[in-house]
Design brief:
The complex is a heterotrimer of chains A (278), B (159) and C (380).
Chain A: E1 4-15, E2 18-25, E3 42-47, E4 51-56, E5 59-61, E6 72-78, H1 82-88, E7 95-102, E8 115-121, H2 129-136, E9 144-151, H3 160-166, E10 171-176, E11 186-187, H4 191-196, E12 204-209, H5 212-224, E13 232-235, E14 251-252, E15 255-256, H6 257-260, E16 263-265, H7 266-273
Parallel strand pairs in A: 8-9, 8-12, 9-10, 10-11, 12-13
Antiparallel strand pairs in A: 1-2, 1-7, 2-6, 3-4, 3-7, 5-6, 13-16, 14-15
Chain B: H1 4-10, H2 19-26, E1 29-34, E2 39-41, E3 49-64, E4 68-76, E5 80-81, E6 95-108, H3 109-118, H4 120-146
Antiparallel strand pairs in B: 1-6, 2-6, 3-4, 3-5, 3-6
Chain C: E1 3-6, H1 10-19, E2 23-30, E3 33-38, E4 49-54, E5 57-62, H2 79-82, E6 86-95, E7 98-103, E8 111-117, H3 118-132, H4 139-146, E9 149-153, H5 164-167, E10 179-186, E11 189-196, H6 199-208, H7 215-234, H8 244-250, H9 255-263, H10 269-273, E12 280-286, E13 292-299, E14 309-310, E15 313-314, H11 319-338, H12 348-351, H13 359-378
Parallel strand pairs in C: 2-8, 8-9, 9-10
Antiparallel strand pairs in C: 1-11, 2-3, 4-5, 6-7, 6-13, 10-11, 12-13, 14-15
Classes of the chains: A alpha/beta (278), B alpha+beta (159), C alpha+beta (380).
Chain lengths: 278, 159, 380
């Protein structure tokens, strides 16, 4: 399976080392049907000559001005390896390869008639961004949506301007590990506001994405509040090469993260989370 | 007009406590409001009070000479602050400062100690509640120490 | 319907397959081992040879007879012809800001495998499920596989490391094969029983105009296979594999993993020799101009640090976790992933382990430790 070629049409530096690319399929490929995805799925982004990296969808922009020209993919990336560092060097007009979409996304239908808690840590907000937009556009039919977002520092928050605009419609608890003089919000870990929050466990659904440690602690807090294990979904990370379940890299117990995940229901994977170095 | 016992009753720290115990403790308490920048407690000063925060935002800070006040964590409505009044020499370890208006209840440290000595059963109940919160704070501080959102240092192979 | 093929007519069979346009691969002696290579006549087969195998040990030895297939499996498996060890995936080029990626498509050759054992047919069927029956397929494998012609051989002797009876994969060929042989040497008589399992197999048979086998010949042949089956079931490496998944799922933290990790070298030999291990990775390279790039796929192994690498380091950082991954995948998680065990009991991982780690022994060790722990808990 070869990648389709996309062009960077917009690049935004979120903060040092983390950036968001908007990608549009190259004109000659535009006869293909535009890419559709479910929030939580990912693409393999190919940096020419260097390799591929699995990057979740942060969104899909569709506007009238794009009609007939395919959709625009949004990917937020942290430069931390050879491929992502090569992607970091891309500027507007540069091209890259895209294979996808792959994997299982968030079970959006579970939020219907429930209160949805979106719990993100660090870069983990990226794959939840499309869920937030689905909520803002009323596509979730959730009774209420709340965002809990933990980050290292106020300067390392993703989508800062969007966060402000979301706040009008979505209750937010943002907590940073280290504040600065101007930070008006929580300082501490994200589990604190989660523990302090009033949560009607039986009528709550939670989507989590972030460092595994953060998710484990948040899940403990949710379970104490009576949120059923079947109502908790989390996005897992492992090394992915082929994204098609053929290369064996991303195995985690009986699961292939690339095809059975990356989003899993906590109830299904609970035993595997307990096993170290799996 | 709400009595101190009513206000104690409303605060999560005292949830589920017997009415008679709340009445018993109410005589230690007073209602107080702090304004932006006011200190609830200061490092190295006598820790005379146990604070129940009713609303507003309190920063727990320490002062670093070349960096100013560093905030370690923030406390909000429903949280408590201060256990230095429990142990000699009854001196605060950190600063606690109001960010904007803060409504709180404060209970006299010495008064609380005496009540707990007098009624060890109530004393133990309160001690369990303190210990739970202290444990949660310790856990949070440990997670903070891990710096989990940062980039791991070894990056040579990552894609 | 079983037919009789005289040993001297094996050559006619090979030539008939050749004539149908197949490239024939089969066992040959190479580097003092029986490996798989291209065959052009029956003279290329290791006639009159056998192998002596034990944990970490492999030797060739002369037989006292002229059997063509009187040995067990060697270090190679057929997967090297189906899931290629190293193959180009795409070529890419860059001009200014423009990238082009062109998939490299091979015209799949028509392959015939001569001397495929029952365990190996099972291994191929397992790889079929992994590489062609999911949402995505390895196209190169699928095309090579689609044209494959197999001549299977019923085993009438086994190596000490064989445990196909434990995995229900042999020694008798039960999966479909284009042709299936059973070799019989009885006194001065040397013949094969041959049967077809497909139209193309039947076509070849008809070209050879053989006579149907008689009852005595059939009984002789079947008797050899049945006798081996019985012997193997009494052997030390036979075990009950029906609860392997549950056993391993219960024992992911068994102290047995620590013990095996003290011996395992993480060398990946077992995964290379295994006929079902399918892990692969890709490598991208560019030329000096930086304008041309190629992607190649090659076999990978769960014993490398790179396989489980995440930013910061590998998830499986020690040998204990890598051996556990390999063995639990093969015997347990494979069942949840693909509906069957990933082990066919061929014994290659035992023979080709440089320190002689024996998978059947490891299963027993885990079971024994579990029983011992349960026992000690009952008597405080």
């Amino acid at each position: 399976m070869t990648p389709s070629i996309y062009q960077v049409i917009h690049r935004q530096e979120e903060f040092a080392g983390t950036f968001t690319l908007r990608l549009q399929v190259q004109r000659k490929n535009r006869t293909n049907p535009p890419m559709r995805f479910n929030p939580g799925q990912f693409n393999m982004l190919y940096a020419f000559g260097t390799g591929e990296s699995a990057i979740s969808f942060s969104g899909l922009a569709c506007g009238r001005e794009l009609e007939g020209e395919g959709s625009i993919l949004i990917h937020t990336i942290r430069a931390q390896g050879n491929v992502t560092r090569a992607l970091e060097c891309l500027r507007e007009g540069d091209t890259l390869g895209v294979r996808g979409p792959f994997g299982q996304g968030w079970p959006l239908q579970k939020a219907k008639g429930k209160e949805l808690l979106i719990i993100a840590g660090g870069l983990g907000l990226a794959p939840l961004r499309p869920v937030i937009y689905a909520a803002l556009e009323g596509r979730l039919a959730a009774n209420k949506v709340r965002l809990f977002y933990g980050a290292r520092h106020p300067s390392e928050l993703l989508y800062r301007e969007e966060l402000e605009s979301w706040a009008k419609q979505i209750e937010q608890e943002i907590s940073v590990d280290h504040g600065d003089g101007t930070w008006p919000g929580h300082i501490g870990v994200i589990t604190d506001p989660l523990q302090a929050a009033r949560i009607d466990g039986a009528n709550t659904v939670a989507f989590l994405c972030g460092p595994e440690i953060m998710m484990r602690f948040c899940i403990q807090a949710l379970l104490r509040k009576g949120v059923p294990a079947s109502a908790i979904s989390l996005s897992m990370e492992r090394n992915m090469k082929c994204a098609t379940g053929l290369c064996g890299h991303c195995q985690w117990g009986p699961n292939f993260i690339c095809k059975d995940g990356p989003v899993f229901c906590y109830e299904d994977i609970r035993p595997w989370l307990q096993i170290r170095s799996l | 007009m709400k009595t101190i016992a009513d206000l104690l009753h409303e605060h999560p720290f005292f949830h589920g406590l017997e009415e008679c115990d709340l009445q018993f403790l109410a005589s230690c308490g007073e209602n107080c409001v702090y304004h932006d920048g006011d200190y609830l407690a200061q490092e190295n000063n006598p820790a005379n009070h146990f604070f129940l925060i009713r609303s507003g935002r309190v920063t727990v800070e320490t002062f670093v000479p070349n960096r100013g006040a560093l905030c370690l964590l923030t406390l909000h409505g429903g949280d408590i602050f201060g256990w230095s009044w429990l142990f000699p020499p009854y001196i605060s370890a950190f600063d606690a400062r109001a960010q904007g208006d803060v409504r709180s209840l404060r209970l006299g440290g010495e008064c609380l100690r005496n009540k707990c000595e007098e009624d060890p059963k109530l004393g133990f109940e309160l001690m369990k509640r303190f210990a739970k919160i202290a444990t949660e704070r310790l856990q949070s501080a440990r997670i903070q120490l891990l710096d989990i959102y940062g980039s791991p240092s070894a990056q040579s192979h990552a894609t | 319907m079983d037919y009789l093929l005289h040993a001297s007519d094996l050559e006619r069979l090979i030539q008939a397959i050749y004539k149908d346009g197949y490239q024939i691969f089969g066992p040959t002696i190479n580097d003092k081992a029986i490996t798989y290579g291209e065959i052009s006549s029956s003279a290329d087969l290791p006639q009159g040879w056998t192998d002596i195998q034990e944990g970490g040990r492999y030797r060739l030895k002369r037989r006292t007879d002229k059997a063509f297939f009187g040995y067990a499996v060697g270090p190679h498996s057929w997967k090297k012809y189906l899931q290629l060890p190293h193959r180009p995936i795409w070529k890419a080029s860059r001009q200014h800001q423009d990238i082009e990626v062109i998939e490299i498509q091979e015209t799949a050759p028509k392959l015939a495998f001569l001397g495929v054992r029952s365990c190996e047919l099972h291994a191929i069927a397992i790889q079929d499920r992994v590489l062609t029956e999911g949402d995505y397929t390895n196209e190169n494998y699928r095309q090579r596989r689609a044209q494959l012609f197999t001549v299977a051989v019923n085993c009438t002797s086994a190596a000490a490391t064989c445990f196909c009876t434990a995995m229900n994969t042999g020694p008798e060929v039960k999966l479909p094969s284009d042709l299936t042989l059973t070799e019989v040497i009885e006194g001065a008589a040397h013949f094969f029983l041959i049967r077809s399992g497909s139209a193309s197999g039947a076509q070849i048979l008809s070209e050879l105009s053989l006579r149907p086998a008689g009852m005595r010949e059939k009984n002789l042949a079947n008797g050899r296979v049945q006798q081996l089956d019985e012997e193997m079931r009494k052997g030390p490496r036979h075990f009950d594999s029906s609860d392997l998944k549950e056993l391993l799922y219960r024992n992911l933290d068994s102290p047995s993993w620590d013990k095996v990790a003290e011996r395992c070298l993480s060398c990946a030999n077992c995964t290379m020799a295994c006929p079902t291990c399918f892990c692969s990775t890709v490598e991208d390279t560019t030329d000096l101009s930086g304008e041309h790039s190629e992607r190649w796929e090659r076999w990978d192994s769960c014993f490398t640090a790179d396989l489980s690498h995440l930013t910061g380091g590998p998830v499986r950082s020690d040998t204990r976790s890598r051996y556990r991954q390999w063995m639990t995948h093969k015997l347990a998680t494979w069942q949840d992933q693909f509906g069957s065990s990933g082990c066919v009991g061929c014994g290659r991982c035992i023979t080709w382990c440089p320190v002689g780690i024996d998978l059947t022994e490891e299963v027993r060790s885990i079971r024994d430790l579990e029983c011992k722990q349960a026992g000690s808990q009952e008597q405080p």
